[in-house]
Amino acid sequence: MTEQSYNQALLALTQAGLAALAERNHAAGSIKTPAAESHFLCNWMVQSLKEKRFSKLVAEDLTRWIREGRSLGAGAKLPEVLQRIQAQYLPAINNAAVGQSLQNLIAELQAEGWLVILDCEVSGKLKLDSQGQNSLVISAEQYQQHLLDGKLIKPITLYIRADEQLIAQFAVKHALLFSQGDKKASCIKHHKAYRLYPDNQQPALALLKA
User: Fold this and answer.
1) What percent of the chain lies above the pLDDT cut of 90?
2) Which end of the chain, N or C, is surrounded by fewer C-beta atoms within 10 Å?
3) What is the spatial distance between Cα 208 and Cα 206, in angstroms, rounded to a whole number?
4) Distance (Å, rounded) from C-alpha 105 to C-alpha 111?
5) 30 vs 23, residue with greater confidence
6) What are phi and psi of 18, to 5 degrees?
């Protein structure tokens, strides 16, 4: 039996949660306010975690959403979170040309006037004098060796300076899953580090578009 990937486990959880919510909302007399729906999903997640219905790969996500559901109520927007995951992950896991999608993204950013640097070794702490311009830097070693014949064969790190939701929008447009931005892991001042994996196989929840 093939071991389930994180993406598969997350989609299984997401689709089951949305199906349970739809069934609940279809029942006569159900209250369909954001607070009621978020409360339902929070309780559903608690039970799912208790019964170990889903892979341990998504246990951390479940725990976080339960905590947010309990503390924020409707503000946790749990139905919206699951809808966003489903809408973003389905095209991404079916993307058989992640490397080409990355190159298409780079070409679009260049056309949009971003400062794009692909021919510099990134090691140690660096500073890019971009005067606040949106910018993307990929270490020359990774760009040359992790992308072969348009195919991404190893994880690649993108150092990006831009509004995070703008980054998420570009990722969705090109059916790519970027990791959450990590400022501490970045070698370039004012940039965050994002990871892209072969076949979009992120090991944890990707950056989501609002």
Assistant:
1) 82
2) N
3) 6
4) 10
5) 23
6) -65, -35
Is residue 1's pLDDT more than 60? no
Q: In what order do the strands lie in the sheet with 156-161?
A: 115-120, 135-139, 156-161, 192-196
What letter represents residue 14's amino acid? T
Residue 63 to residue 59: CA distance in whole angstroms = 6
Residue (of 139, 167, 154) closest to 199 by Cα position: 154
Q: What is the residue-averaged pLDDT of the chain?
A: 93
Query: Which secondary-structure segment (H or E) carries 136?
Result: strand 135-139
Nearest to 24 by CA among 48, 41, 47, 49: 41
Reported as half-sphere exposure (CB side, CA atoms, 13 A), residue 18 has a value of 15
| Per-residue model confidence (pLDDT) at position 189 | 86
- For residue 81, is pLDDT > 70? yes
CB atoms within 10 A of CB 96: 11
Distance CA 173, CA 92 (A): 10
Q: Give the end-to-end CA distance of the chain in Å, rounded to a whole number.
A: 36
210 with 168: CB under 8 angstroms?
Answer: yes
Region of 94 (left: φ > 0; alpha: ψ -120 to 50; beta: rest) is: alpha
Structure tokens of 2? Answer: 């093939």
> Do the bridges between strand 192-196 and strand 115-120 make them parallel or antiparallel, or are there none, so unpaired?
unpaired
Give the max Cα distance, the chain. Answer: 62
On whether the CB atoms of residues 68 and 45 are closer than 8 A, the answer is no
**Where are the domains positioned within the chain?**
6-93, 98-200
